[in-house]
């Protein structure tokens, strides 16, 4: 049997939050149901953040209320503070995602918190979410570099992860929020994290801003990571960082994994088949994903 890789689909949250077009609640629910039909089982569906700052996510409660309850699916809601957690816990969200930030400047612009403050808040939220009976995990943002401060020391990320691990998240994700990392950097950081936290499950979140996202994902696989984020069509980015374009595309990641002998449970044809439905709703002629344009290989006979 081929080795399993869990793909966490972030399109309905991280994908949509940076788009100019705001999808209706109905279209968001339809997108998530299409993703479920294509094999997605762990999906970021909403964020509970200030709607004035991220209007694309203002309807998080309505989206979750409209989603089907499924024992085989995990719906993730992103929160940045205790107020966000309160909103999320009032819904049927299955899993809470927190964010700690590896640079002070980015943290103050994004969450109005320094890096150290974001770790403290994340730890409190993780513990509160667990007490409320929800799964909880945390992402370290700008772990590979900050658009305002430049290089982020590897030791800082490892130190943050060690502090966050004390709150016992189900996993720690390492995010290249602005798409600056390269495979050698990914291998070095993941090796250091595994040495420091040998029992902590790791997840990786890469952006393809500088065309290194898929290469970084493969480097993570070589380091033993088996949980990867991606976004259908390659949509998304960070609204608080200049030129932070899309996540790695789910279909591009699937193509690489399938051809490399890994199993995901996703149907690549169904994922690529969503693009003609999604692109016009985002007022885009095409989406960034490459495989949706080029098609699979070998080509499927008509």
- Give the number of domains: 1
Give a count of the beta strands, DSSP E runs of length 2 or more.
Answer: 8
Radius of gyration: 18 Å
Poorly predicted tracts of residues = none
CATH class: Alpha Beta
Assembly of the depicted chains: single chain
How would you characterize the largest beta sheet? 6 strands, parallel
Give the second-level CATH assignment, the architecture.
Answer: Alpha-Beta Barrel
CATH fold title: TIM Barrel
Helix content: 40-55%
- Strand percentage, roughly? 5-15%
Q: With helices defined by DSSP (H or I, 4 residues minimum), what is the helix count?
A: 12
Quick tags:
302 residues; alpha/beta; TIM Barrel; two-stranded parallel sheet; globular
């Amino acid at each position: 049997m081929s080795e399993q890789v869990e793909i966490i689909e972030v399109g309905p949250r991280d994908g949509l939050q940076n788009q100019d077009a705001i999808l209706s609640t109905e279209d968001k629910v339809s997108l998530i149901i299409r993703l479920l039909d294509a094999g997605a089982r762990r999906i970021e569906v909403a964020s509970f953040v200030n709607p004035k700052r991220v209007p694309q996510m203002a309807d998080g409660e309505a989206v979750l209320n409209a989603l089907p309850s499924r024992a085989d699916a995990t719906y993730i809601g992103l929160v940045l503070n205790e107020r966000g957690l309160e909103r999320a816990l009032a819904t049927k969200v299955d899993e809470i995602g927190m964010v700690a930030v590896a640079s002070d400047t980015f943290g103050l612009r994004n969450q109005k918190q320094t890096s150290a403050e974001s770790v403290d808040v994340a730890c409190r939220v993780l513990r509160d979410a667990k007490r409320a009976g929800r799964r909880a995990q945390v992402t370290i943002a700008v772990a590979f570099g900050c658009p305002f401060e430049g290089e982020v020391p590897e030791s800082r990320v490892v130190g943050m992860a060690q502090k966050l691990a004390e709150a016992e998240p189900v996993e720690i994700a390492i995010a290249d929020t602005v798409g600056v990392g390269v495979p050698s950097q990914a291998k070095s950081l993941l090796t250091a994290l595994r040495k420091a936290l040998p029992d902590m499950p790791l997840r990786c979140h890469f952006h393809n801003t500088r065309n290194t996202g898929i290469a970084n994902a493969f480097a993570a696989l070589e380091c033993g990571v088996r949980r990867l984020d991606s976004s259908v069509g390659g949509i998304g980015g960070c609204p608080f960082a200049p030129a932070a374009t899309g996540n790695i595309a789910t279909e591009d990641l699937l193509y690489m994994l399938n051809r490399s002998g890994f199993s995901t449970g996703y149907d690549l044809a169904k994922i690529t088949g969503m693009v003609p439905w999604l692109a016009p709703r985002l007022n885009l002629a095409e989406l960034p994903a490459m495989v949706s344009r080029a098609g699979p290989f070998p080509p499927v006979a008509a």
